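User: quick one - fold this with coenzyme a persulfide bound?
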Amino acid sequence: MIRDQEVLNQLVDTIGRFVRDRLIPAEQTVAENDAIPEDIANEMKEMGLFGLSIPEEYGGLGLTMEEEALVAFEIGHTSPAFRSLFGTNNGIGAQGILIDGTEEQKRKYVPKLATGEVIGSFCLTEPDVGSDAASLKTRADKDGDHYVLNGTKRYITNGPEAGLYTVMARTDPDNKGAGGITAFIVEGDTPGLIRGKPDVKMGQKGAHVCDITFDNCRVPAENIIGGKEGQGFKTAMKVLDRGRLHISAVCVGVAERLIEDALKYAMERKQFGQPLADHQLIQAMLADSRAEAFAGRSMVLEAARSKDAGKNVSLDASCCKLFCAEMVGRVADRAVQIHGGAGYMAEYAVERFYRDVRLFRIYEGTTQIQQIVIARGMVRDAR
Ligand code: COS
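Assistant: Sure. C-alpha cells for the protein plus coenzyme a persulfide:
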C-alpha cells in the first residue's frame, strides 16, 4: 500500500541519489577497510534510514511493506553491507518488539532504534542450531524477578556493534520444542553478555557478524517480549516472515544493479569487431537476467501488498525469498561471465557482488528452509 505517492517518490529519489552519489563511490573503500565510514553512517541516521519501517509514533518513517520494498529496491543498487548497518534496526532487531512487545517495551526501546542511536540485533542461531531453530539450547532460568541466560549465539549480524539484542532462549527445559522458547530484550551493557571477535566472511565486508555468549547474564523478567513465556519461537517466525520479504526486495535491487553493470560493460567492450551487447549469446544472458529480475520485482510487490492488506504472507514471503535469492545468484554469475576475465578481477564491482550475494541464499532461512515452509503451507491449505 502506498499512502502518498508524491511523498514516497521524493523519498525514493533522495535515497536513489544518496546511493549513486555517496554509497557507490565508497563501495571499494568499505570492502577494503571492512568498515562503513562514520560520516556515511551519520548521514544514514539523518535520512531516517534506521527507522524506515518503524511506526511514526515510535520515531520512524512508518513505511508500509510495499513502500519498504520500493525503498529496498533502491538500496539494493549498492553493496549489501550498507543496508546491513541499518537493516537490523528496521527488521529483525526491532520487529520482535514491534510485533509482540508490550506498549511499554515499544516506548522504551524502539525510538532509539528508529534514530540509529542504538543498533539492534537478533539472536536465534547457535553453534549446533541453524535451520532447526526450535531446538535451540540457550537457557533462561528464572531466578526471582530475573532470568539467568547461559549459552552461545552464532553468526549474529551487527553483533559487534549492537546495543540491544532480541534473544531467543529456552525457559522450559522440559519442552524441547518451539513451545519452550521465550524471546527476551537484552541490553548490550548487561553483565554476562560477551561479544566475540568479528568473523572473517566470504563477502559483504563492512557488515559484521560475531558470536554472542551469555554467561550468567541476568535479564529482568519484564524484558520478556510481550511478557509471556513460551511465545518466543512464534515471535521469531513472524519477524522472519517480514525479514524475508525485505531481503527479497534487496536481492531484486542488487540484480538490477548487476544488470546495469553488465549491460554497460557489454556496450563498451568489443570482440569480433562489435560490442559484446550485439552478440546473441551475450544478449541471451542479459535478457534472462532482466526477465528474472522483473519477475522478482513483481512477486515482491504483490506479496508486500498482501501483507499490507493484513493477509498471512508466510508462504508468499518464502516464495519470494526462495526465488529472489536464487535469482540474484544466477544474475551475478552471468554478470561475471559477461565481463569475462575482467569479471574475475577485484577491480570490477561484479567480482565483489558475486561473493556478496552468496549469503542471500543462506541467511534468514536457507533456500531449503523456504522450500519446506512453502510445501508445508501447500499441504496444510489443501487439507
Ligand atoms: N508465524 C507464526 N507462527 C508460526 C510461523 C509463522 N511464520 N511459523 C511457525 N509458527 C508456529 C507454528 O504454528 C507452531 O505453533 P503451534 O505449536 O502452536 O502449532 C510453532 O510455531 C512451531 O512451528 P513448526 O512446527 O512449523 O516448527 P518447526 O520446528 O517444524 O520449524 C521452520 C519450522 C523449519 C520453518 C523454522 O525452524 C525455520 O524457519 N527455520 C529457519 C530459521 C532461520 O531462518 N534461521 C535464520 C537465522 S535468523 S537471521
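One thing worth noting: The first helix runs from residue 5 to 33.
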